[in-house]
Amino acid sequence: MIAIKRIYTRTRHTMNFVPFIDVVFMLLIYFFVAAEIRPTEADFTTNLPGYGRGVNPPKPEDLKEVYHVYLRVVDPADGRVEVSINNTVLGEGPEAFRTLEARLESIPDKAHMAIEINGDSNVTVQSIANTLDAAMGAEVPSVRFARHGLGS
Fold it and tell me: Does the reported pTM lie above 0.90?
């Protein structure tokens, strides 16, 4: 018998990445072209209740008087809030928000008025919501929040 000697040669297999990179770039271009361009999410307009049905809210230059509503936490333990409008204290607790609504309803020229809500740093979101409910119940056309931290 004849002995046959086998010769094994090792071949190195390498992967060609050029087609892979081409496919990745083609997918990238596809998704850039197919992507929907959205407007800035922070750029939105809001309409208060009573507006948006063909009636526009007053412009800032048309406002004759701005009423300043201030919310102050009297007792942080139970979250009791004192409500005042134009430096006149209306009371504390839930009754103060009803008084606020009655005071806002008694204003004769509501078409050209606004309220500005300001408060302590400890005021809860519920107190702000109660103030907004009072403004909505009195059909106040313009509500804004005081800006803090400007110039300090």
Answer: no
Distance CA 41, CA 38 (A): 8
Q: What is the pLDDT of residues 16-64, one digit of tens each?
A: 888 889 999 999 999 888 887 766 655 555 555 554 455 565 566 666 7
- Residues 80/122, Cβ–Cβ less than 8 Å: no
CA atoms within 13 A of residue 33's CA, in its CB half-sphere: 6
Which H or E run includes 23? Answer: helix 18-34
- Short-list 71, 141, 68, 73, CA closest to 111: 141
Q: Which residue has the tokens 């400007």?
A: 150
b/e sequence 62-95, b meaning 16+ C-beta within 10 Å: ebeeebebbbbbeeeeeeebbbbbeeeebeeeee
CB 114, CB 143: distance < 8 Å: yes
Q: What is the largest CA-CA distance in the chain?
A: 121
CA-CA-CA-CA torsion for 60, 131, 91, 123, nearest 10 degrees? Answer: -100
